[in-house]
Amino acid sequence: MNAWFAHHAHSFAVAFDRLRRAPLAALISVLVIAAAITLPAGLYLLLDNLKKATADAAPRAELSVFFKLNTPEATARQIGQVLQQQPDVASVRFIGRDEALKRLEKLGLGDITAGLPGNPLPHALILRTRDSNPAALDRLAETLRKRPEVDRVNLDSGWARRLNAFMQLGERVIWLLAGLFGLALAAITGNTIRLQIYAQRDEIEVARLLGATDRFIRRPFLYFGGLQGLLGGLTAWGLLSLALFLLHGRIAELAAAYGSEFALAGLSWLDGMALAAISGLLGLIGALYAVAHTQRSLRIA
Length: 301
Known about the structure:
Blueprint: H1 2-21, H2 23-57, E1 62-67, H3 73-84, E2 89-95, H4 97-114, E3 124-129, H5 134-145, E4 150-156, H6 158-199, H7 201-209, H8 214-257, H9 269-293, H10 295-298
Antiparallel strand pairs: 1-3, 1-4, 2-3
Helix pairs in contact: 1-8, 2-6, 2-8, 6-8, 6-9, 8-9
């Protein structure tokens, strides 16, 4: 076990020394990797902030519940009180049939209502929900329609559906870009490793003649690819943090102009470490591809 750790420590030291001996080339490769990672990560961060902003600024979805004409006012109010206790309901407002009739008269429809033998308007409830998800709104509306006292339920969720469709489209675009740039990252790392392998061809042949195993020769290249990807991910995290710092003041001024206190949220420590880990993994995959691609000509795998 000690020998295994010693071999890996030696391979890591060799990979780190290769980065140190060519700082300019390593810096360029790390910056290219960081650029490939920053775009999809930045779009993910932008979409996450948009979700938070729309959750605070978007109007609450409303459901209009109309009772049957023979439903007593006390029963309608009692149902409203029960609905108010549900966790997904933000507020419930009761509108009696007499109040609804007075509102029609204020709108200039008094001549029409005066000719009616009675009040044709039902009691109603106006519900505002906490969750604007269209699926959740549909479930709540369907539950209300099943009540025997309810005659009709109108759901105002068109804006919520459009917003949800926009967010879903944004998520798919981000995942698509993440996949494309992930392939680009692996290709960049693989190309760098392949050039190193060809540049050190004589050294590899000498090492093989001295008894070095294929794993021993291959391991530093794998560590180099993973280390390069890891540094690229950390650099992308730093670039995103810098961009948010530069935009923070302007965003705060814009939000204050609209009477809001919205502030951009950056990547959490968990998200940042995950970004660096994914970047390092892609770098390792690129290194594995480069080693496998050159195995026949150099016989190192």
